[in-house]
Design a protein that fits this description.
alpha/beta, 7 helices, about 170 residues, Glutathione S-transferase Yfyf (Class Pi), Chain A, domain 2
């Protein structure tokens, strides 16, 4: 599955090892990460207390910059993830904030419809993908056993079938 990918400032700078491991894990689990173009800092500070509209416009710019056709965005950094989720939630609930942020985004040629993109933390996606893989492996294992049973039954001689019938099998 493919996801929009928001690495955030930390992964680009002081948490570069986290970025390296993120990309390695994503490749191993076949999680397609498509980095959003021209992303900016999510403002993982208390900037929101200084200027609410500017703070949410800064975050919403990343949501608006998502990749076409992708409905989910992964943020490995917990602060970035929380900010993306918080901005989307507040923009859905606060009509005045939504209008002000929409105006700010429009000035940059962008638009975002709150609720149209789901922010997910990398670990959430890894766990879900791994669980799906385990279910597939189990299902394939059960199917393989059923096929093996059918093959064994088909190759059994009449004497073997009679023995299985006597044993209740």
């Amino acid at each position: 599955m493919k996801y929009s990918f928001y690495p955030g400032c930390s992964l680009e700078r002081n948490a570069n090892a986290y970025l390296t491991s993120t990309l390695a894990i994503a490749k191993h689990l076949d999680i397609g990460l498509v980095e959003i173009e021209d992303w900016n800092c999510c403002g993982a500070t208390e900037y929101v207390s200084l200027n609410k509209t500017a703070s949410f416009a800064l975050i919403a710019r990343n949501l608006a910059s998502k990749n076409e056709g992708l409905k989910e965005i992964i943020a490995p950094c917990s602060a970035c993830y929380i900010n993306l989720c918080k901005a989307d939630k507040y923009l859905q609930e606060d009509a005045r904030l939504r209008q002000d942020v929409s105006t700010a985004l429009a000035a940059g040629g962008l638009a975002y419809t709150p609720g149209s993109l789901k922010a997910r933390h990398l670990l959430d996606v890894v766990v879900v993908v791994r669980e799906q893989a385990v279910h597939v492996e189990l299902a394939l294992g059960v199917q393989a056993l059923l096929v093996l049973d059918r093959l064994t039954a088909a190759q059994a001689t009449p004497d073997m079938r009679a023995g299985q019938a006597r044993r209740g099998g």
